[in-house]
Predict the 3D structure of the following.
Amino acid sequence: MTTKTKALCLVLCLLCFISFTAACASDPALPNDDGAATKGPSPQGSQAEGTAFAFPYKFSAEDLYGNTVTEESLGEKELFFVHYWATWCGPCVREMPDLARVAEEYGDRVGFFALLDDYGTARETALQIAESSGISFIMVDAKTKELQSLLKKVQSGYIPTTILIDSDGNMVGEQLVGSYGSGYSPYIDDALKNDK
């Protein structure tokens, strides 16, 4: 192999690495709250402020605790926050306490739901991460058959990726790629304002 070929291979490998890590990098310009979070799963009941609706994707899956959950488990909300993540993604794990706080703040109006990419091999790890972070929303296997059309909407080629969906299952606002921590709040506020 010539020196030029080796250099080209090295540059291409470096570009691939930078692209991958950029998707899993958190945005340093966004604030990071230090508020308290509640622990353990809690039901996501209905809300009274806007027009609430049931989760638009019918499914039956096992959550991190081994319970069977369905779309009815998510209650009725104005919007649904769908988060696609994996336990091997450092920024995904680091933002979990922030997601717990955001879910607590908006839980009356927004249903929070997570699709776990590595559920089959890392369910116990995900459960430990969720419990230590105060996550109380439902997380299921991203490979759940009935959720494949939703997964196609949330997949961007990068992890984490987040979308908000309306009563018809349509994406509201832009797909958020990367870790946003507590910076999800403006995204949710805009979507709630525009969805009325």
